[in-house]
Input
Amino acid sequence: MPDPAFFPRPRAVALEEIAAWCGGRLADPAQAYVTVSGVAPLDAAGNGDLAFLDNQKYLGQLAATHATACLVHPRFVGRVPRDVAAIETAEPYRAFATVLAKLYPAAFRLEGAYGGHAGHISEGAHIHASARLEPGVTVEPGAVIGARAEIGTGTTIGAGTVIGHDCRIGRNCHIGPNATVIHALIGNRVIIHGGVRLGQDGFGFAMGPRGHQKVPQIGRVVVQDDVEIGANTTIDRGATRDTIVGEGTKIDNLVQIAHNVVIGRHCVIVSQVGISGSTTLEDFVVVAGQAGLVGHVRVGAGAQIGAQSGVTGDVPPRARMGGTPARPMTQWAREIASLKRLAERRPGRPRADAAEGQEQEG
Output
């Protein structure tokens, strides 16, 4: 539930306005002037709260909810209790996100940990004399901004964060506390959460019997507009070319991206994924949690990689892959089902097809 200490409770808003925000439609127009002043999940919602249903798994909670209103797909409108106002929308979760951004703008536009006002540069920050900060940049205590770095207006640099020399950071970005950004170019409206490490050496060594010789990494990290990078994720700079994260891509916490990786536009990379060097993800690729990708492979546009999968070769566009080594999801599912049936057979018990053959011979 939203804590008013962190996210102040919004003003009461009429349901007709809520519907207009998200492009929804009130199932009962007579409820247009009913108001909500908060949000909550179905099972915890009460008077004045807006909830949503995006998964039929929670139809039981919908039947028992005490919410004032619910965003719901048209096919489930008939399941909404009579005393709950239904707002029809083809995409309830996306509609809910739109409404949340309106009701709780502070959660949508991240604030610094220190809580200072926008555009304030703390006396406890360390900014090189040659760095260039546009008006409206916020720099919190303990932050370090290196020589010739450039930062655009509306950007927040969190407490304890280090921005290396010659880095470029665009406008309206948020760099969380204790992050490190070196050898990097960052676009506009980029969110980098706390503890992220951006632009450090890639893992490059010329290995051999005389020892492992370090290979200098002389590339950069380029992060395009509207990217979000989760806490404690690491993205290595390129060896002789750039590591690139395409616009609109969303990266979860605890992801490792190696040198020379190229990630396309609007990809989704979930927690604990590891992507080895010189791998390319084309646009709109989804990589689920704990998947691993070897180096020098290409994942085609729109492909989906299942959780805990191991990708060892190129993946065609729009393919759905699972397992280790990763193979088409339908094939992997059949193999798992076959293994399960094999494991469930009792020792000494003949297979069904063998038993049928014996009966026919008799």
